[in-house]
């Protein structure tokens, strides 16, 4: 009989056997996973749990909040604030950082999250998720400020997401490849179901919101136009398209079978670099994709090399199968 490896055991091995993560980081990741289990339960109850619909409030980015956006945010904060691993947290749903109250022990890590990704899919029962990223608080100064969070994604010490779909799957990197864990609801634990996740270098599948086509920049238009020409066009092959409108679900597909995902800058709001959030969405997903052998750029630069200038910074995103990301990035250099 094969032994099932739980997330806890996997993390202990990463800590003890491989020396990859300190014990505080291991404990922090276990708490995040526990919070995701709680969110998964709320998601599963749906209309029975009264968790669908809007909350009647807006977040700092002017987006209407769904009840689950707020519930997921609270679950993550309540689970993490007292554990002693964290100095502060930042979330897509909060105006500014949440410093761990001084009645609790203070830790050395910073946790960032998109508590509920794919909010437009909650009420229609389509996959949604939680995306998280962990940074280390810069050493030296006492206390913690927003500036401590403004580190390039290359400095992440852990990143992952949990997708609440037909299965609840937690996907994680601590810088040693990507591992996937499926929630065993009977046991109440995440079980390792795939290690050494690899994204194929080539693909015939792209993910982009095609309704924005008329607003895109020339390099993105060229790339998609060439894909659409199929086997008789310059690419010499047919492409398929998928767009779930939950980044977690689109990225999960790409980690599973390859593909390219793009949410590029567009002309509707020319001063906004993109729709997606650098710190809560692009950085953790880019690191996961790179760790699985893929690539992630904003069209001009590796996403993980961008130094954020503000907490809720936006970014243009192109990630997935390496050869396709390199191709669309090269079009930006020439057009
Ligand atoms: O509705 P659009 O414009 O296609 O945008 C979809 C994108 O927006 C997002 O939903 C943003 O995430 P939130 O639900 O966390 O705001 C991404 O997950 C997704 O890729
Ligand atoms: Mg999101
Ligand atoms: Mg969100």
Automatic annotation (TrEMBL):
Q: What is its EC number?
A: 3.1.3.11
How many cofactor units bind, and how? Binds 2 magnesium ions per subunit.
Q: In which pathway does it act?
A: Carbohydrate biosynthesis
Family matches, as Pfam families: FBPase (PF00316), FBPase_C (PF18913)
Which residues are substrate-binding?
117-120, 209, 275
Instruction: Give cofactor(s), names only.
Output: Mg(2+)
Domain named Fructose-1-6-bisphosphatase class I N-terminal: which ranges?
Answer: 6-195
Q: Where does it reside?
A: Cytoplasm
Q: Which family does it belong to?
A: Belongs to the FBPase class 1 family.
Its name, as the record gives it, is Fructose-1,6-bisphosphatase class 1
Lineage of producing organism: Bacteria, Pseudomonadati, Pseudomonadota, Betaproteobacteria, Burkholderiales
